[in-house]
Amino acid sequence: MSQKTYSTGSGSHPKAVAVGYFNNDSFLDIVVANYDTHNVGVFLGYGNGSFVENQIITSVGSGRPFSLAVGDFNNDKKLDIAVVLEGISTVIILLGSNNGSFEIFRMYYMGHDSRPYAIVASDLNLDNRTDLAVVNYGTSELVVFIGNGNGTFTISRYFTGAGSHPISLAVADLDNDSLPDIVVANSGINNVTFFRGNKNGTVTDMVTIFTGYFTQLTSISTTDINEDEYIDIILVDSSQNSVYVFEGFGDGDFEMEVRNSTGINSNPIAIAVGDFDNDNKPDLVIMNNATNNILVLTLYGRYPQAFPTQYNLTDGTNPINMEITDLNNDDEPDMIVPNFETESIDIFFMKDNTYPKKPLTYSMGKGSYPYAVSAIDLTNDGYKDIIVLLKNAKLVAILINTHKGTFTSGNKYSTGNDFFPHVIVVADLNNDNYPDIVTQTDDYNIGVLFGLGQGLFNNTISIYVDDDCSPDSIAVNDMNNDRFLDLVVSSTNSEYIWIFLGYGNGSFQEPIRVSIDGDSVETHVLGDLNNDGYLDIVYTNVLYSYVGILLGDRNGKFSRIPGVYVTRGSIPSHMALGYYNDDDILDIAVSCEYDTAIHVFMGTVNTTFPLVDYIDTSADSRPQSIMFVDVGYYNFYYLFVCDSETSTIFQFDVYLTTTFFKRKTYTTGSSSHPYYLTTVDFQNNDNQQTTVVVANSGTNSISLLSNYSDGNFLDISMLSTGIDSHPQSLTIADFNGDKTLDMAVANAWTDEINVFVGFNNGSFDTKLTYSTGLGSAPSSIVSVDINNDSRIDIIVANEGTNNIEIFLSFNYLKFSYNYIYIPDLLPQPYAVIADHFNNDTFVDLAVINYNVKVFLIYLGYGNGSFANPISNLLKKEFSGAIALAAGDFNNDSYTDIVIANDEHSISIFLGLGNGTFRFLDSYAPTTDFNATSVAVADMNHDGYLDIVATDPTGRKVYLFEGNGNGSFTNQILYSISKESNLKCVAIADMDTDSHPDIIFTDSITNDVSILFGYGNGSFTNVETLFTDDDSKPISIAIDDLDNDHILDIVVANQGSSSISIFYGLGNRKFSSDLFILHGFNFYLNSIYISDINNDTFVDILFTNEDPSDSSVGILYGADNHQFREPILYFTGRKSEPGSLAIGDFNRDGRKDLAVTYYNQDMINIMIQTGFQPFLSDYELKTGIKSAPKAIAVKDLNNDTLVDIVVAYSGTNEIGIFFNSDIGISENQIVYKLNNHSHPVALAIDDFNNDKRWDIAIVNNKTSTIVILFGRSDGKFGNQTSYFTGADTIPISIVTDDLNKDNYIDVIVANYGSNEIFVYYGRFDGSFSTPKSYSVGYSGHPQSIAIKDIDGDDMLDIIVANYGTGYIEVLLQIC
User: Fold this and answer.
1) What sign does the dihedral 380-383-389-390 (CA atoms) show?
2) pLDDT per residue over 716-741, tens digit each?
C-alpha cells in the first residue's frame, strides 16, 4: 500500500472531499473544499490513479467551504457542486462547465447562527431531478432543497429537536415503502432522527432513536449490513470511541445490535460503506482523528465473544493445571485446582453459575507438590473421584467421593524413582470397565497403573517409547477406529510423535513414529478437525510460536497441513479443542504464557483456522492449562484458564454475538514512537558532526538529527526500515572496512536486520536486509569484532526464538544481474568462455547451445554490455555442442575455438580477428567417439597448442597434437577397460617439473585421475585420487590454494553435494579434504577457482543447477587457507545455471561473471557492484523460554577476546557466553535474578574502580537496578539492588562519569513514571539517592544516550520519549 500526496495549497486546511466526472473524459476527478483559502479545488484524473498536480480553483468568496455534495442540478448533463460555507451560514450552488471549472450560480442563506454542517445530494421526490438535504447544527434543523431542474431549489425546514445539534445525515428507504427517507445524527441529545419521506419530497413522522447516554455522534451512514434486505443505520460516536449498528426491521423500527470499539482514544469522526474484500458484503471504514488511522471492519455476522469472571486463589498457590467436571451430580461444572506451592488441592462447587470464594481444601502432604488432577468414577457409585499427580513425590494419590461434598483419602501409588512426572491421563485401556492411569516414569518410558476397581490400582508398568523421547505430553483415544484405546506421546526434544496402537487388553503394538518435519512438541491434543471420522493431532511448537496440525486418514497415516502462528515469543504451552462458535467444527484454543492471552482459531469446512479471538488474561498473568466446558445451553460455553503467575482461574462465558470478524487499521501518519537512540560522530565530507540516531518504531524509520543549536536540531534526515518493521535497536560501526561508519538496525516485527552502508558525505546506500529467522523478533543488536579478524561483526538477541545470532563480517560481493536472451527456439545454452575474439582489449564471450547448430560470439563494449551475437555455423552432423575451449591453434595471433559435441567429433574453428570464424576440420578418432570435455595446452613443448579430450563412450583420453597450422594428429593417451564415465579434463603442471599433466574425473569410479607428462607428449601410468563413495565427480579446477607454490585440485561432486580438495604436497603426493554443502538443495554442475573479491585469497565458485535452489555459489577464501561457508547467489527457480565465465567485463578492475541458464535460454551477466558485509551467520541457543531482551559485550576475563552478556526477560536470568581461541562457548554461565524481575536492559562498566568489569541490569517488572560485581576469576557475585519506585517501570540504562569525579554514574529511563534518574557513583561501587528529571506527562522515556551535545565539555542526556514522539535533550549546566 502506498499513498500519493497532492498539495491543496499552503494554509488551505481542506475540510471535505468528493469525486465525480468534472471534465467529461470518463476519468474520475477529485473536488476539495479548502477551508482557509475560501475556494474549491478540482484535481483532474488521468484514469490511472494519478491526478494533475495543480488544482483548478473556484473562489467562493468570504465563506469557508466546510462540506460539499456533487450532482447535476440544472439537468445539463454536467456535474455541479453544492457547498456549505461556514462563517456566513450559506449553501452556494456552483454550476459546472465540463472542464473542471465552476461558476457561482445561486447562494442560499440558512439563517442567523444556523451553522449548516453536512449536505447530501439525492433524488428525494423521485422526479429525476437532483435534490439536496442539509443539517443546520446551530438551529437544529433539517433543510430539504427540492430541485427545480434549472439549478434553483424550493426549501422546506424541519426541526430535529431542542439542542439536538445535527451533525451528519444519510438518505435511504428505511421503511420499505419505495420512498427515500432521511436519517440525521444528532450530536447534542444522544439520538438519531428518522424522517419518513413523502412522494412530493416533504418529510413527516419524525421518529427518534435513542443511541445511549453520553454519546456524541459524529457521522452516520446506511446500508443493509446483515443482508436481510432491510436498511440498517451505522453511527460513529467520538465520545465513546465506538461504531454502532442499528439493524432495521423494514418498517422504520431499529434495534442496536452491535457496539464496536474503534480503539482507545481514537476519536472517530467519519464513516463510509463499501465492499473492501470483494465478498459482495458491505464493510465499514472509519476515520480515527486522534490515532491518525483508518479502521476497516469486515465480515459482519454472529461470532463468539468471551466474557470473563476471575477467581483469585490464595496468593502463592501457583496452580499450573485444573480439572472442570461435575463432582456432585447437580449438572453444574465444579472445579479442582492442584496448588503446586502450597501442596494442596482446592475444590470449588459451582452453584447458580458461580463458584464460592472459599474452596474445600485438602492437604496432599509435605514435599508432594501436586501438579495435575483428573476426575473419574473409580468405585462405580455414579460419583466422580479424584486422582492427583504429586510431581516431586513421584506418586499418584486417590481421593474417594463420599457423595456429601467431601472426599476421603485413598491409596497412593509410585510412578517410579527416576522422573518427576507432570502428565496424567485416565482411561480404560484394557476394557475391564476399570479406569487406568497413564503418566511418565523416566526419560524414555511412560507408565500405566491398571485399575482394579474401588479406587485400587496395580503397580506401575513401564512402556518403552524411544531413546529420542523424553515423554512430555500424553493423550489417549482410538486412533484407528478399532474400538481399542491407543496412546499418543510427544517430546519437546524430538521431531516425532509416537502412536501406540492398543490391542484392547492393556498391551500395545510397537510405536509408530510420525515425523513432524523438524518441529518439536510442547504439548498435543487429539480431535477430528475435518469431521472425516478419523482423529487428528494438534501440537504446539514453542520455538516458532506455532500450532501444527496432522490430519489422520483411514490407513492410520498422518499428513501435515498448514498450521497457525501465535504471537512471536509468546510460548504456546497448552491447548484445548472445542466448539467455540457452535458450528460442529472443532476450534483450537491456545494459551500463550508470555503473551498473557488465549488465541482462539476457528475451524472451517476447508480445514483452515483463522484467528477468531484474542482473549486477554491481564497484564501480569501467565496462562497455562485451558479447558472447554459445554454447559448444554444453545450458543453458550465455558472456557476455563489456569494462571500460575497470579494464582487465578479465569472463567470465560462464551456467547455468540453479532460483530465484525475482521478489523484492520491503516495508518495515515502517526507518532514516531522512538524506541532506541544512540549518538555518533559522523564524518560529513571534511566536517565531523555529532548526530543523534533514533529508531522510530511507530513510523518504521530511522531519524538522524544533527547540528544542535539553541535547543533544536537544525538538520534532520530519515531512513525507512520498511512497512511494519518496528525497529527496536540499532548499532553503528564500520562494517565493510571503508573507514566510513555504517548502521545496523534490528526490526522486531519483520524478523530481520537492516544494514545501511554509509558514504563519506553522511548519506547511506540502499538498505541491505538479513533475516534473523521466522518468529525471531530481534530485540537488541550490538557490533564488535567477535573473532579478532579486524572486521566488525554483529550480534543480535532474538527474543522470539530464544537465541542470539552472530553475523560475521566479510567482503561478500554484490552483483547486478543483466540478462542476454539467446535467439532461436529452445537453444539451451550449455557452456560459455571469456576471451578476446576481436583483439580490442575488451573481454568477449563465446557460447555454445545444445539444441542449435551455431555457436555465438558476443563482443564486449568494455562497459558490461555486449553487442548482438555473431552466429557461426556448426557442421550439420553436430548433435549437441557440450564443451569448448579457446587458443591460437595456427599462430596467427587470433583466438581460435575447439568445440566438442556429444556424438561425433571435435571441430576446429579458426578466428578471423573480428568475431567471426572459419571452420577448418573435425576429428573423430573412432565412429563412436563422444567428446564431453576439452582442454588446450602445449603438451610436448613444440610451441604449438595441443588439445586433450575425454571420451566416456569409448572410455578413453585422447591427445590431439597441434601442427601449428590449425590441424592436429590424434593419439590415444589412456584407455579404461572397466566401466567408467569420464566427465571433465584439465591441464596443469601438478608435480612442478615444468611439464604439463592431464587431470580428469570419473563419475562412476568416483575418482580423479592424473597422467603426469614427460614433456614430449608421453605420460606416466594413471594415478588416482578417490573422491568418496557415490560422490560422482563432475568438474575440476586447479590452482595453488595454500600459497605453497604447488598446485591443488578442487572437485565438484554431483552425487554427494560436496567439494573435494586435494592439496598438492610435492613428489606427486596429495592430502585430501571434503567440504560438505548444507542448508539448500545442491546439484553441482561446474567449478572454478579465482580470487573473485581481490583480497589475495583464492575463492572457489560453483554452479548449482538444482531446480528449486538454482544458484551460483562462492566459497570465499580466508586466512590459514580456509574457506567460509558457501554464499549462494540465486539465479531463479529452474534456471539451471550450467557454466560460467570470469572476466572484467566493464574494466573497473573487478571480476564479473557470465552464467548460462540452460533451462531459461539466456546468459546472466553478473557485474560486481561492491561489497555487502554480512551473508553468513550462526546462532547460540539461550534456553527454552529465555526470551533474550538485551545484549552487551566486553572482554570480561582479560583474555583479549570479547564475551557476550545477555538479559533473559523470560527466565529472569543473565547469561554470559565466554569467547576463546576456538570460538564462543555454547555453554553459558547463568546468574539467577529475583522471580518476576524481567530484565530488559544491560550496561557493563567498572563501578567500584577495581579494574574489573561489573554488570548493571534493569529489571522492568520489579522496578529495580541490580549490580553484579566482577571477581578476579571472571565470574560475578555480590548482587546489589536499587529500587526505582513503585510503577516506575525502568526500561533503559547508560553509564558514564557525568560529574567528572572519576566514579561511574548510572542513568536510568523510567517509562512508567515519565522521568530520568541519575545515580551518582561513589568510590565503593555504591550510588547516591537518585536525582530525578521529568520528561512530562505521557512522555514514557524509552531509550537514553550520553553525549556532550552542545560542545561545553559537559556530558548531556538525550532521551527518546516513546509516548510523545519527542527527542529531548537534558543539558548539564554544572
Assistant:
1) negative
2) 888 999 988 999 999 999 998 888 99
